[in-house]
Write a structure and sequence with these properties.
Helices cover 45% and strands 15% of the residues. It has 459 residues and is of the alpha/beta class. 35% of the residues are buried.
């Protein structure tokens, strides 16, 4: 069982729904291994709950398995022995019991029932409307195939549209909770592991007992018998029909082709042919379209770049996919040497920037609150962090240095120079500067910061 870390908001939402006197229908969804089952297990504690895991087998087999679970749940030998050919019969038996407390019915991997029988969402809509909704019962529909869960339970065209009383899209654990998985791990160690595992609890725990990140990579990822070695294949195979095109797009982005035209050129395809693929990857929380934070109309901006937001997927497509031939031939030492040479600049430093942006958003010791935090770039300039307070016309420029040594004053002066090229409210704005460093600051920079109220140093 995975550790239960974070998820306070999600637990509060579930408890609020449970506390209602009337019925409640909650949809919980999110990608594989993100911790949905762990969340539900935590919520179920101390409650009268029936948990059913649907499979990819035929509907009749799933119905029979659910009947068996329900019979044990309500302690009914009669239901266990009855021949049942309708789901309605089972749910009627459940709600007909006299419950001292509100029962919780959880159907995990709900989308498999709709996959086995496309009419099942309509069947369940009738069950909800005629049986469950009229009783004090909490129903949770959970699933990991995001597009399918959305189409079956949340979209306007779904028979269940409008029935849910709450929905939870479970995402990866934020970095600030990483230390709870491996207590005592240094900040550097946390960032290095985060650069590979991201906030996926299952991945994080696979690295928990490893001495350092490189041992973790060799034992968990370059091990052909481990689940992480083929994880991207399994993840995409469950979500999309043809994996090849999605792999090509992810590989292009991992290799630095971040503009739509560059991705299309890399693949030898038309840019218009990639729209649907990129849209799906964004829906799966694997890819993000990013624009400079100062853009007024992000959707219409021509400066959009695509980046892989899932750290493990990014690491795998950068370091494992191109070297699979060597891994298959047993040349693991050679591949590890390549990883060691590029890991800090290509992965740890990249993750550190995101960590700094996350931490900036959570801080309350700045002169003002920033409603927008992101990056800035143009043809000649790149700035790691730009944060905006549009009400007060305040802009913060940040630089993130994942260096082995301390940061000196030249970094600040270079940041000042780059800031002058950012046109946002150029003649009427207050400027702040923040420098993040993995290994501290030089005495000169510390003295400079003491003399300026617009410069913040953060380790």
């Amino acid at each position: 069982m995975e550790q239960f870390v974070d998820r306070e908001l999600e637990i509060r939402t579930l408890e609020k729904e449970y506390a209602k006197k009337e019925s409640s229908l909650v949809v919980v969804y999110g990608r594989r291994r993100v911790g949905k089952t762990t969340l539900l297990s935590e919520f179920m504690k101390g409650k009268k709950a029936l948990y059913f895991l649907a499979t990819q087998e035929a509907e009749a087999i799933n119905r029979s398995a659910f009947q068996e679970k329900a019979a044990a749940f309500i302690e009914s030998p009669l239901l266990a022995e009855t021949s049942v050919d309708k789901w309605d019969t089972i749910f009627k038996a459940i709600v007909s019991c006299k419950w001292e407390e509100k029962p919780v019915l959880i159907i995990d991997e709900f989308q498999y029932l709709g996959k086995a029988n496309p009419a099942f969402p309509s069947v369940f809509q009738r069950i909800w409307d005629e049986i469950l909704m009229k009783n004090s019962v909490m129903v949770i529909l959970c699933g990991s195939l995001i597009p399918m869960m959305v189409s079956q339970t949340l979209s306007y065209n779904s028979p269940l549209y409008g029935r849910r009383t709450a929905q939870i899209r479970l995402k990866q654990i934020p970095f600030r909770y990483y230390c709870e998985f491996v207590p005592g791990l240094s900040r550097k160690g946390q960032i290095e592991r985060y650069a590979v595992t991201g906030g996926v609890p299952k991945y994080i725990e696979s690295f928990a007992d490893c001495a350092d990140i490189y041992e973790g990579i060799e034992e968990n990822i370059l091990n052909r018998t481990g689940y992480l070695y083929e994880e991207p294949h399994f993840l995409l195979q469950q979500e999309v029909a043809e994996v090849g095109g999605y792999f090509s797009v992810l590989r292009a982005i991992a290799f630095g082709r971040t503009k739509l035209a560059e991705i299309a050129s890399f693949m030898g395809a038309k840019a218009t042919d990639l729209t649907r693929t990129l849209k799906t990857l964004i829906e799966l929380d694997l890819v993000q379209r990013e624009v400079p934070v100062t853009e007024e109309n992000p959707e219409k901006s021509k400066k959009g770049l695509y980046r892989i937001t899932d750290y493990y997927i990014r690491f795998w497509f950068t370091m494992i996919y191109p070297n699979q031939g060597d891994v298959e031939q047993g040349n693991v030492t050679y591949v590890m040497e390549k990883i060691r040479k590029s890991f800090v600049c290509s992965h740890a430093a990249f993750a550190y920037e995101d960590v700094c942006r996350e931490e900036l958003a959570a801080r309350d010791d700045f002169p003002c609150h920033f409603s927008k935090i992101g990056r800035y770039w143009d043809k000649n300039t790149e700035i790691d962090i730009v944060a905006l307070n549009e009400e007060e016309n305040t802009i913060l420029f940040g630089e993130c240095k994942y260096w082995s040594g301390s940061v000196d004053v030249d970094v600040f002066y270079q940041l000042q120079e780059k800031a002058r090229r950012v046109p946002w409210h150029k003649d009427d704005r207050k400027e702040l500067y923040c420098i993040f460093s993995m290994n501290g600051f030089s005495p000169r920079l510390q003295e400079l910061a003491k003399s300026r109220d617009d410069l913040i140093l953060s380790e």
